[in-house]
Amino acid sequence: MLSVVILTFNSIKFIKPCLDSVFSQDLEGTEIIVVDNASKDGTVNFIKENYPQVILIENKENLGAARARNLGIGVVKGDWILTLDCDVILGNDFFKKTMAFIKDLNDKTGMFQPKILNTNRKTIYSCGIYLSRLRRFYDIGKGQHNNGKFNTSKYIFGACSAAAFYKRQMLDEVREETGYFDERFFFLIEDVDLSWRAQKKGWKAIFYPEAVCYHSGDSSNTSKKIRQYLCFRNRYFTIFKNEKNIFFPKLAYSLLTYDIPRMGYFLFANNKFGIKALKEILQFFKSLR
Which pTM does this prediction carry? Predict the structure, then answer.
């Protein structure tokens, strides 16, 4: 059985195309769960009136993407879970292709990534997560033209949770006290952390380009300064949690060439959130000791 967990937050502009693309698939053996983070724009009523078959979880406040996904995962019945942002539209035969793909996966494949294109359908949003030796992470292919370069299935570091398949067995194994997705992250980079934890326990991730979907990006309309703050802070949360050799020379090189200049710019351009991020990073580091 496949379970689909969709997040909404003031998503009235996006949720109809998303759900219509889901319900246009072959839904045999599939459950659809929507977790709403206290939308104020009529999203919840729209779903209730037009998609009564959806399992709807209504949060009283914005709990963040990580916790909202955890709440959805907590009620699923499926062996595989597809996480979707509300501004994702599935391509034709998306479920048919992915369910056939799942049947041929080995036991240690815990997640896989469909090809996510931007809504212009010409450029790539993500073909999975790449982690460099200097512990920088990227969406594979982001911004590049979809010209055939990314048409081969291969092992990757992890999956971008905007549209990602997770094996329930893997999620149960890597779950921490802070959830499947670490709820301390609130939003952004929590999928990198989950992928890293899964890799350390021997689980594999695969990119599967035959299944295609389309993503608008930033449907939450998060301000640039808050997004910058969360990206900066959560990068260090992830590294401190998962990197054993945190003082390894290569990481020191990364710190000197990338992190320190970035920190300087961040503090200059976004002083309020920069200081807040540094304090929270220090507190997080102390909590792990």
Answer: 0.94
